[in-house]
Amino acid sequence: MDKADDPRPGETRRDPPRIGEAVVHFIGRCRTPYATRADCPRQGALDGPLCRLEIDPDWADALDGIERFARLDVLYWLDRSRRDLVTQNPGKDGALRGTFSLRSPVRPNPIGLARVALERREGAVLFVRGLDCIDGTPLVDIKPERCAYTPLAPAKAADRADG
Amino acid sequence: MDKADDPRPGETRRDPPRIGEAVVHFIGRCRTPYATRADCPRQGALDGPLCRLEIDPDWADALDGIERFARLDVLYWLDRSRRDLVTQNPGKDGALRGTFSLRSPVRPNPIGLARVALERREGAVLFVRGLDCIDGTPLVDIKPERCAYTPLAPAKAADRADG
């Protein structure tokens, strides 16, 4: 972590929660035009620059059928973020906000979530627009965007009860 | 894993990708009316039953300011899911689909993503509607829902360039 990662006035840090833990296996990498954090937009745009999601070639088959979705939810691991801030001062104005009320990359599990537009697939690579992360950021998951998605399996009683 | 986790005909498994890995620290637990996977709806509904997100009390301050958002993105760890299937047969009809073209809980990093309606906060507990997971599922992250969220920090050059 560099100097820019030092807490700002009033920000508080805490040890990690001790509920339990699990291991994430990165599935690939995000390739973007953003070399540094200063280059990254605060939020990606669906008409932003073309980026690539490069999947481990061993897992390429896991992309089969993805072309039918125009929008994807992409989860990635913001591996340069500190993880110990409970409150933050995003406006640098002394007004503190809880970490879970922000979409800041600084959070106990630094998982970024972007909705992207899928342009095309070439083997183990997806071409997308809408990423906001540094080039090389590890990929954690790719899912069809929730609003566009209808489960393929039949509805269950609990779906109907839920209305 | 129980018998229901056995691969169906045609489904293929693979070792985890070896790009790299990271540790997730669970931040709390989801409390839902669903005791088993058979009880869970395939997708939660914003007018579904009232559920709770119980955060580690040490991290309660990280919820400060969250009441201003009506919708949240919730990430949770589907700790009973197998992680090794590259293709799946969700309709049980022999039509195989890649794991990343599904929102199935079976995926290399079994992170569920739900959009929920926030009803109220009581200390380290959020009352929400829209979860679809088993009672006790570990929580990974909570963020303001992306569509409702405007960054508090000023826009950067890259935002403007991105349109």
Automatic annotation (TrEMBL), chains A, B:
NCBIfam families: tRNA_TsaA. GO terms for molecular function: methyltransferase activity. GO terms for biological process: methylation. The keyword Methyltransferase applies. Coiled coil: none annotated. Residues 24-154 form the TsaA-like domain. It holds the Pfam family TrmO_N. Keywords: Methyltransferase, S-adenosyl-L-methionine, Transferase. Belongs to the tRNA methyltransferase O family. The keyword Transit peptide does not apply. The lineage of its organism: Bacteria, Pseudomonadati, Pseudomonadota, Alphaproteobacteria, Rhodobacterales. SUPFAM superfamilies: YaeB-like (SSF118196). This is tRNA-Thr(GGU) m(6)t(6)A37 methyltransferase TsaA.
